[in-house]
Amino acid sequence: MGDNIQSVNDIDYTPIRNVHPSPADWRDVFIYFLLVDRFDNNSKGTKPYTSSSKIQEPDISEGKKFQGGNIKGIIRRLDYIKGLGANAIWLSPVFRNRQEMEDSYHGYGIQDFLRVDERFGNLEDLQELVKEAHSRDMYVILDIIINHTGDNWAYPGDYPYYYWKDAPGPFDFGNWRTSLGASDSNNGIGENDAVWPLELQSPDCYKRRGQITDWNDTDQAVNGDFFTLKELDVRRSDVLDTLIKAYKYWIKEADIDGFRMDTVKHLESGSTAIFCNAIREYAKSIGKHNFFIFGEIVGDDTTIQKYIGRNSRIPGTHERFPSLDAALDFPLYFVLEEVIKGFSDPSVLRNRYDAFRNLYTDHGEAGRYFVTFVDNHDQMTRPYRRFMHGNNIWQQAVLAMAYLLTSQGIPCIYYGTEQGFDGGGEDDAYIRECMFGGNWGAFGAKGYHFFNQDNPIYCDISRIANIRMEEPALRYGRQYFRQVSAGTVTGSTFSYPTNGNCTLAYSRILDTTEILVAMNLGSVPRKDYVIVDSNLHRAGGNMVDLLDHEKEYLIGHSGSAMFVKIPLQPYSIAILKEKTG
Length: 581
What we know:
The protein is α/β, with parallel strands linked by helices. Helices cover about 25% and strands about 20% of the residues. It has 15 helices and 27 strands. The strands form seven sheets. Strands 19-21-22-27-24-25-26-23-20 form a nine-stranded antiparallel β-sheet. Strands 1-3-6-9-10-13-14-16 form an eight-stranded parallel β-barrel. A two-stranded parallel ribbon has the order 2-18. Helix 8 (about 270-285) links the parallel strand 9 (about 260) and strand 10. Helix 13 (about 395-405) packs parallel to helix 14 (about 455-470). Residues about 180-185 have low confidence and may be disordered.
């Protein structure tokens, strides 16, 4: 059909080929999240970065504009991603942004919902990427936005308008933004002008309440403009229907496997549920029976659970529809880094999972509702910094990713974490470095690529990811934090760690299988005893380290307690399973 459609009513939603089936369970998936503009530009001859590569003070103006990454570059790096152990790719938005605005490299300022941005490639490139990913048993997830468009129109006089709670109604509409391109449609709006599809070319499609000034005000968050990005009125059935049809198009045309939904807190819950239900029903109708929709909800567990694991009431009706399948795990993100680095008492981690027992009827299944992460491209509630910013202990990056890969949830890695990217600064551009080098490379380097499959962080993550895929308990099991003892072994000496210099241990249990994960978070070797489930093991048996099968540990007992003694080097990990046969 091509990628220059002007109306959603022109779309035939019959798939152009047999669709790729969904995974049976998304907990079988390890997601690699990348920014299209910053990942790879498909250019040959770029030298690899080394410790002796020239570095310089970064020019922040470069970080705020397009760098040249494209879809073809992603295609040629699929084996790099798969080699890490990831079997799904989450792409930043690929949809057409305003062509005259260089600062929308991130893709979140959409001008045409039915077209790939030419700076990233075209529809055929996206189709080829998905086809190549599927041939490698990998899935592709698109980042989507339904609460706002790009800065496609102006308020009167092109002045900034700000949210005013006492306004008698929507502010007046000023004018559609245009570019130098010639008009080529009956209403005088060209392909580079205003917004597409044409169903969104009415001022009434937008709430027109001005920019948000207080992000903690719920009314502003839902009704105000996201900076200069214009808030859509998704309460209107015609607007919501247009968005549903636009995103159905990408499933049909490119065989997409899932969506990540941006800024969910800025949407009415009923509209979110209608959208998600419509997309899932369409996907099922064409053979994708487990299409995945997860969302960005920056909040605590009480806030997140309103969107997942339950039906949402649709205002003005007796209908209830399921909303998101999962949410980005911000509650874990808020505490995990400090625990792994030894800055926080591990009890904050235990308390977070204890809350599952109150919020979800089956806490063992709670992991299906969360996409877990340690680095991401948006950090609204903390300074802009990656996990490794200001940190020279690369093993801690491995421990953080190991936690995601062995704990409850659907693990996600942000591009560059596997190479130790350490960006940080007063602007989000500092955590959006170029993997292919360009003028905004990591570590202050220019013109060097960072696709080093011998990097020890990459290698260790790959080993742990492979173990996750081999062990169902690490994907579906219940999770229990374990007590440890650093001294003599009696029932009274076991306790949960109360400071960061400790062995952090937890078990995943599925049926009769227990896998014990132990991490030394400290800078000195440790030889701690760790409790295991006395109902699943026998004293005198052995547990083997799945990371090194030459290492075996005797299962001992004292009274009713059963345990293993685990020697660990600083910042190291062991993944133990009872030896059979």
